[in-house]
Amino acid sequence: MGSTLIRAEQVVTLDDADRIYEPGYVLVEDDRIAAIGPQAGLSGRHFDETIDLGPRLLMPGLVNAHTHSPMVLFRGMVEGHSLFNFDGWYNTIRVVEEVMTPDMIGAAVGVSCAEMIRTGTTTFADQYFWMDQIVPQVRRSGLRAALAYGIVELGDKAARTRELAAATAFLQSMQDGGRLRGWVGPHAFFVDNSEEAMALELALAQRFDTGLHVHFGTSGEEERYSQSHYGHSAVTQMAAMGLLQQPLLAAHCLALPESDLPLLSATRFTAVIAPSSFMRNAAGLPPLLALRRAGVNTALGTDNVTNNNSYDMFKEMQILGKLMALQHRTPNALPTREILEMATMGGARALGLEDEIGSLQVGKKADVIALDLHEIGWAPRNGQDVYTALVYAVSGMHVRDVMVDGTWLYRDGAWKTLDYRQLVKALEADAARLAHASRLKGDL
Predict the structure, then answer these.
(1) According to CATH, where is 3.20.20.140 located in the chain?
(2) Residue 444 pLDDT more than 60?
(3) What is the pTM for the complete model shown?
C-alpha cells in the first residue's frame, strides 16, 4: 500500500501524554501509523501519497463496546416498553424474533455498519445469533469487530446443546477472521443462561482464547438469584465458577453492588455503559464513578438502536457527561477527557486491543476519523477546550472521513465500502415482510 501522509489542521492523539498537534499529520504505512507530529517537521520528506484534509480534526476512531446490529430492523417498534425486564423484552422483541427469518438480517447489519461508520465508530462489539448472516456484511463494511454468538437456553438441555454447537462452529469459522474476532455471547448469566450452560461457555471461551460478552446487572435478577441459591453475590459466584478468568464484557451493570468492585478491579472485567439505553428503558444509572475509582475498566456503547435510537457515539458521550453531573449534583462530575477515554481506550482495553487501537500512536493500527472544523459548534476555538467541544458541542454528523487499517471506509462525505441507500431500501422491504409475518401470527 505504500506510505500515505494525512495532513489536518488539528490532530488529537488521545495518547498518554495528551499530545495535540496544530497543524499536524499522521503518516500511514500499509495498515499502521508510522509517524505522527507537527507539520513543521515534514519539510524535505517524500511520500507515495499526500492528502491534505485542511480544516479537519483527526482523532482515533471510536469503539462501540456493546450493540446488537440486526436490531435496527426493530427501530421504533418498542415505544413505551422497557427491554430491561423479561416481560418487556419478550412481548415486544422476542415474539417478533420468532417470526423473523435469516434473510432479514443482512440489510439490517449493513445499515447498522453504515451508520456506525458515518458517525465515527471504527470498532464495535456485537452480540446476536445468525452470525452466518452478520459476518459477511461486517466484513464487507471494513469495520473492526468483536462478534459474540448470542446464547439463550433458559435451562433447556436441548437448546443448550444446539446453541453451544452453533457457537462452536462459529468460533471455528473465525480463526482467521482478520479485523473480526469471535466471542462467546451468553445473553444473561443466571437469568436465561443456567450454571450448566455457563460452565460450558467458559470452557468454550478458554478453548478459543476469547472473551464472554453478556448483559449483567440490568435489573438485579442475577443478584437475587445468587443470594437466594448461594448466599452471596452474583460476582462472587462468577468468580467461584472461574468466569472472571476470561475477558468479560458486561453490558449495563446497573445493579452492581459497590462491595464487589475490588474483586472486579483485579480481573479483565469491563462495565459497558449505555446511557441512552438506560434512559429510554427507564432503567436507572450504574455506579460509574465508583467503578472508575475502584479501577474497573469502563467503556461506552449504544446498546441496540431499537429504542436508543441512534449509533452516534458522540451523542452517548454528551448524554453520559450530563447524566453524571445530574446524578452527583456536581458539574463535570465525569471530566470530558475521561469520557473520551471510555469511548476509545476503554473499549480497546475491553476487547484486548489496547496495543492496536484507541489512540493515535506510532505502531498502532491506522484507525482514524476526521471531523469538519468548519461545521457548527467549534467556535470560539481559543476559548473552548477541544475535549469539551468533542463531548458537548459536536456530533457524529461532523465526521467527514473514516479509516480502518489504513483503508478509507468513508471519504469526504461518501461511503466507500457500502451502498447505504440500497441497504436502506432492502431494510424497508424486510421490515414490511416482518410486520406482515407478525400480523399473521397475531403479535402486532
Answers:
(1) 62-350
(2) no
(3) 0.96
